[in-house]
Amino acid sequence: MVDNYNFEDNKSDDIFIENFLTRDAVFSPDSKLNRYHKLMAYYRCAIMEIETKFNVLNEEFSIQYDRNPINGIKSRLKNPVSIKEKLERSGLPMTLTAVEENLNDIAGVRIICTFEDDVYMLADAFLKQDDITLVSKKDYIANPKPNGYRSLHLIVKVPIFLAQEKRIMKVEIQFRTIAMDSWASLEHQLRYKKNAGFTDEMAQELLHCADLSAELDSRMDRLRALVQNSRSNNTEEV
Fold first, then answer.
1. Three-state DSSP string of 156-199
2. I want to staple 46 with a disulfide (CB 3.0 to 4.6 A). Which of 136, 161, 169, 205 is the partner?
3. Nearest Cα residue to 80 out of 160, 154, 6
């Protein structure tokens, strides 16, 4: 994921949006462009809601465990070209209704966790909140993808409160450890490098690196447990 995409500052995107997005009959006759930006603003609000929730959880757990389970939070909005391509691949009409009803990953938040156990601790605490509705869950940590990719993916619905209304927005949330995120970032750079062939041998090497990354997470989790138990024993002795 990359930093939030700023649609307002990119005039070429405005032209692109006007060209590909058809008039949506359910909307009032505002310009397509204004409606598009308004919808993207709603998604940005949803991202802010999700980020706030995890910042609060991180603060609470930092007091409880004397450490921060969240190493970092990244967010992004899917750009217009990617939205158009996904609509085309799915055979969906080029309308805002199709975007909002069918695309679950327009707004994305990535939670980079310190340890693998933190992924599940944070996800469980987050999903217990009564304003969060789980749409789907895919655990690529327990069941990695064939290429070695590991992450916990959630699609959730979250309310945003505007001046005159409440809207329910969908957000994709990815949970990774530091090791998982490093592997995924490097894998993407290597596999999709322009003008470079990617061989089966390279794919096997990446898979081996993914296995090493998983082993690193497992070892670090065991070390964390040992340190925590040692600290607890020392506290009891005092």
1. EEEEEECCCCEEEEEEEEEEEEHHHHHHHHHHHHHHCCCCCCCC
2. 169
3. 6
Average per-residue pLDDT in the chain?
A: 87
Whole-structure pTM value: 0.85
3-state secondary structure of 111: strand
Convert the pLDDT of each residue in 88-115 to its tens digit.
999 998 888 899 999 999 999 999 999 9
Bridge partners of 111?
73, 175
Q: Which domain holds residue 59?
A: 11-180
Burial class (CB in 10 A: 0-12, 13-18, 19+), 143: exposed
User: What's the full length of the chain, in residues?
Assistant: 238
Assigned domain for 30 exists: yes
234 in a domain, yes or no? Answer: no
**Number of structural domains found in the chain:** 1
